[in-house]
Design brief:
The protein is an alpha/beta fold. It contains twelve helices and 15 strands. The strands form four sheets. It has a seven-stranded mixed beta sheet, with helices on both faces. The chain has a four-stranded antiparallel beta sheet with strand order 11-12-15-14. Strands 1-13 form a two-stranded parallel sheet. Helix 2 runs antiparallel to helix 9 and helix 3 runs parallel beside helix 9.
């Protein structure tokens, strides 16, 4: 037996596991202290009433012979894909139904999509970066290059024509930095990818937070993207499905290389390795896009946007440089006093009992920066800000 030795090339501890371990150790040693967690990007509001109603109704369907569902379509039920199709149409993007694939989340698909690409492809990611992009490619033995995101470019690096890449990861609004590319900037990336004959893997998990008309909610708003991009999205942030698990991937039918079609390869991969998302979860997801669902969902999003503004206003008051806070649930701040990321993590935990995420865990360029999320409760976010201001 031989095991995959590329696992030795990744960190033994996943970033958020390390955050959780340090936080748990502090709580155990200080049971009298109330810790506020603004680290992991997990939502706190419950599922919307329209979603719960659909979930209950779908569960009832499973108890009746006439409406019982067994194995569903590998690509997802048509009723959900049509809802997603209409959602894109509301933002000016037309998709064919068979370009939409329902999954158990964007994180899964961002890793699984690599099955359709050769191991010899060179990967380009921004630094700092969501760890899944790097780790999944490192596990497969691919070469990974980094586009330098930093304070000078607002953590929005642009393409370098001298760099040759085959697979390009773009997350906008970005995790962890909260920075978002304008449509003009994304056009530069699309043109670069088409010139390089590369593919952009576009993580749109946070598109629902965009309110600025100059920003794209989908890469397919950009001319030329259908020839070079795959888009991943999730119900986790728009509708609180972090524990319910549902997402989707969009692969244009014209995307391909070497006589192979990416859309067909992905269907073949899914039909081989995946049996689909549960019927009841897909019914709940479809309710997100109903008129009532959208009303309730947007109220929840406004709740998190308010939290983001509270944190951003605190940074402004204290004179701390940051990105995000607008069009994003993340605030990416420069650690005060020249502290390192983990140094500031410990300082904030020990002196204010507030947990965030050290930027160093997202890559070399994350050192000296720190991420706070707007996914806590309103009351706890207010309390966290008061503690930070006092500190």
């Amino acid at each position: 037996m031989k095991l995959n030795t590329h696992f030795k090339d990744i960190s033994e501890s996943y970033l958020f596991a390390e955050v959780a371990e340090r936080t748990s150790a502090y709580i155990k040693a200080n049971p009298d202290k109330k810790v506020i967690k603004l680290g992991i990007g997990d939502v706190t509001l419950p599922l919307a009433p329209a979603v719960i109603s659909a979930l209950h109704s779908a569960a009832d369907d499973m108890s009746v012979q006439e409406t019982f569902k067994g194995y569903g379509p590998y690509e997802g039920y048509a009723f959900l894909r049509e809802s997603i199709q209409n959602y894109y149409r509301s933002h000016g993007v037309e998709l064919a139904l068979d370009e939409i694939f329902v999954s158990d989340g964007a994180k899964s698909d961002l890793g699984n999509i690599l099955d359709i690409f050769d191991k010899d492809n060179t990967v380009l990611v921004t630094d700092p970066v969501y760890p899944v992009y790097v780790d999944t490619n490192t596990m497969a033995g691919r070469k990974v290059l980094y586009a330098c995101a930093n304070e000078e470019n607002g953590f929005l690096p642009m393409p370098d024509g001298k760099v040759k890449a085959d697979i390009i990861y773009i997350c906008s609004p970005n995790n962890p930095t909260g920075a978002a590319y304008s449509k003009a900037q994304l056009k530069e990336w699309v043109d670069y990818a088409n010139k390089q004959k590369a593919v952009i893997l576009f993580d749109a998990a946070y598109e629902c937070f965009i309110t600025d008309k100059n920003l794209a909610r989908s890469i397919f708003e950009i001319e030329g993207a259908r020839e070079c991009a795959i888009e991943f999205c999730s119900f986790s942030k728009i509708a609180g499905f972090t524990g319910t698990r549902c997402g989707y991937t969009v692969i244009p039918k014209q995307l391909g290389a070497d006589g192979l079609n990416a859309n067909k390869l992905w269907y073949r991969r899914q039909s081989t390795k995946f049996n689909g998302v549960p019927y009841i979860v897909q019914k709940a997801a479809a309710a997100v896009f109903t008129e009532q669902g959208q009303k309730e969902i947007n109220a929840n999003l406004d709740y998190y946007r308010r939290n983001a503004k509270i944190i951003a206003d605190c940074m402004d008051k204290l004179g701390i440089w940051y990105t995000g806070g607008k069009n994003s649930p993340y605030i990416w701040l420069k650690c005060p006093g020249g502290m390192g990321s983990w140094e500031f993590f410990d300082y904030l935990l020990n002196n204010a009992q507030v947990v965030g995420t050290p930027g160093a865990g997202f890559g070399a360029n994350g050192e000296g920066f720190f991420r706070l999320t707007a996914f806590g409760s309103y009351e706890l976010t207010l309390e966290a800000v008061k503690r930070i201001e006092k500190l």
